[in-house]
């Protein structure tokens, strides 16, 4: 087979491929969890959350395809089985739970934040350990997407009044709770 000559050593390429496969597994588990909540959610926010999670599902589907195809572009093979994903993902499934809408949001925020922390570390690994600025840039874009999705979700559970200078006023949650 023709060797790949793109300025990365074999060790560097394999290191990056391994990181990408971990990110692929996390994205796939989050995809499934997001879709499940898209189906299960009930309550006054049903329509908004149902639609938001439908959109996030589409974004995650595109991300997954991009991650897997980047693995191929670097000469590797993406993990492509549920068993394989579950073996290396850093996320946890909660199959027995049918949580309230706010708990679903909280759970997905935690997952996005876990992925953001992982990606931040992988970006450093790519540029510092493996000298692969291309993948570092690619992962930076993914991280920014997760930051945006996490912000959208967080906005459902954070109720704070903000003054015109950006300072937080009293939390609406605390007001509602009479604190
Ligand atoms: Fe749907």
Can you walk me through this structure?
Helices cover 70% and strands 4% of the residues. It has 179 residues and is mainly alpha-helical. The protein has a single domain (10-177), classed as Ferritin, core subunit, four-helix bundle (Ferritin, Up-down Bundle), CATH 1.20.1260. A two-stranded antiparallel ribbon has the order 1-2. α1 (10-40) packs across α3 (82-88) and α4 (101-129) runs antiparallel to α5 (133-157). The longest helix is centred in the first third of the chain and has 31 residues, at 10-40. It is globular, with a radius of gyration of 19 Å. Bound molecules: fe (ii) ion (FE2). Residues 17-158 form the Ferritin/DPS domain. This is DNA starvation/stationary phase protection protein. GO terms for molecular function: ferric iron binding; oxidoreductase activity, acting on metal ions. Belongs to the Dps family.
Give the termini distance in whole angstroms.
Answer: 68 Å
What is the total domain count? Answer: 1
CATH superfamily: Ferritin, core subunit, four-helix bundle
Count the strands? 2
* Main pleated-sheet profile: 2 strands, antiparallel
Query: What is the arithmetic mean of pLDDT?
Result: 91
Low-confidence parts, pLDDT < 50 over ≥5 residues?
none
Order of helices and strands: HHHHHEEH
User: Which CATH first-tier class would you pick?
Assistant: Mainly Alpha
Q: Strand sequence of the main sheet, in spatial order? A: 1-2
CATH topology: Ferritin
Q: What class would the helix/strand composition place it in?
A: mainly alpha
Percentage of residues assigned to helices: over 70%
C-alpha geometry: globular
Using the CA coordinates, give the radius of gyration.
19 Å
Q: Would you identify the CATH architecture? A: Up-down Bundle
Which strand-content bin applies to the residues? under 5%
Bound small molecules, by name, code or SMILES, are: fe (ii) ion
């Amino acid at each position: 087979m023709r060797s790949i000559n793109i300025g990365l050593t074999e060790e560097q390429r394999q290191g990056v491929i391994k990181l990408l496969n971990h990110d692929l597994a996390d994205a796939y588990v989050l995809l499934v969890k997001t879709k499940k909540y898209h189906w299960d959610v009930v309550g006054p926010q049903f329509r908004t959350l149902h639609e938001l999670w439908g959109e996030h599902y589409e974004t995650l589907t595109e991300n997954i395809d991009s991650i897997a195809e980047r693995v191929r572009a670097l000469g590797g093979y993406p993990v492509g089985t549920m068993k394989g994903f579950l073996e290396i993902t850093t996320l946890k499934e909660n199959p027995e739970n049918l949580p309230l809408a706010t708990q679903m949001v909280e759970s997905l925020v935690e997952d996005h934040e876990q992925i953001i922390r992982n990606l931040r570390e992988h970006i450093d690994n790519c540029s510092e350990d493996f000298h692969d600025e291309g993948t570092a840039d690619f992962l930076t874009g993914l991280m920014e997407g997760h930051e945006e999705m996490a912000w959208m979700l967080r906005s459902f559970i954070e109720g704070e009044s903000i003054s015109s200078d950006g300072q937080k006023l009293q939390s609406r949650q605390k007001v509602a709770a009479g604190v």
